[in-house]
Amino acid sequence: MLLLFGLVGLVSLVAGSEVDLEGEMRLRLEHSLDLGRTWKPRGLVSLTRSRSGNPTIQQDVLSSDDYEKIKELCSNNELYMIKVIGEVDPVELQSFVSACPLVESGMAETLVVHVDWRGSVVAVNQGTRLEEAIYKGRNRERFDTKIVVQNMENGPTPDTAAFIQKVEEEKARKMTGETTENKSFFSKYWMYIVPVGIFMLINSAAGT
């Protein structure tokens, strides 16, 4: 009966995980133009918990005043900061870049969103795409944002099955008396060989 209840609970857990992985996550995107003292809405990022979905972003228009503030951050060699806040999941994460590369790239950035095995966001990293700096004359009314979702990958696992099998085989050999010695001839009989060698050296020295 306990086994039956355990099996039912396991099936329910798996089913619940599948439902979670098929849901959608919405993250509010905010930015700070004064090193984190105040925050302003910037857009909305939508992610699917399954690996097959593509992220989308809706962004507010970047006003000329905000753009001038970002340029001011650059002139002072300061940071441009962002924050993502989960609308349903209790997540609030921050990242930042130097303001100068952001301006030089024509506001071209990359947001890398790291998710765990459940599809929940655990970290976000902001970067700039400096290779697009040749487009300095582009329209800067919007950020050119590329969203990259980085899923957690399973690491290598130890081969415990082979180790357990080896231990069991060794235990069976010991029980049946089939243990074998892999020692060399000298390591087995050194206590006999050494005295004989010393005796022969003494006799040869006495003979001379």
Outline of the structure:
The chain has 208 residues and is α+β, with helices and mostly antiparallel strands. It has 5 helices and 8 strands, in the order αβββαββαβββαα.
Helix-strand blueprint:
Blueprint: H1 2-21, E1 24-32, E2 40-48, E3 56-59, H2 64-75, E4 79-86, E5 92-98, H3 99-104, E6 108-115, E7 121-128, E8 144-151, H4 160-176, H5 185-207
Parallel strand pairs: 6-8
Antiparallel strand pairs: 1-2, 1-4, 2-3, 4-5, 6-7
Describe this structure in words.
The chain is of the alpha+beta class and 208 residues long. The protein folds into 2 domains: 21-151, no CATH class; 160-207, no CATH class. Helix content is 38%, strand content 29%. The protein has 5 helices and 8 strands. The chain has helices at residues 2-21, 64-75, 99-104, 160-176, 185-207; strands at 24-32, 40-48, 56-59, 79-86, 92-98, 108-115, 121-128, 144-151. The strands form 2 sheets. The protein has a 5-stranded antiparallel β-sheet with strand order 3-2-1-4-5. A hairpin with a 5-residue loop joins strand 4 (79-86) and strand 5 (92-98). The longest helix has 23 residues, at 185-207. The chain is elongated. The chain starts with a helix and ends with a helix. The relative contact order is 0.11. The model is unreliable at 1-21 (pLDDT under 50).
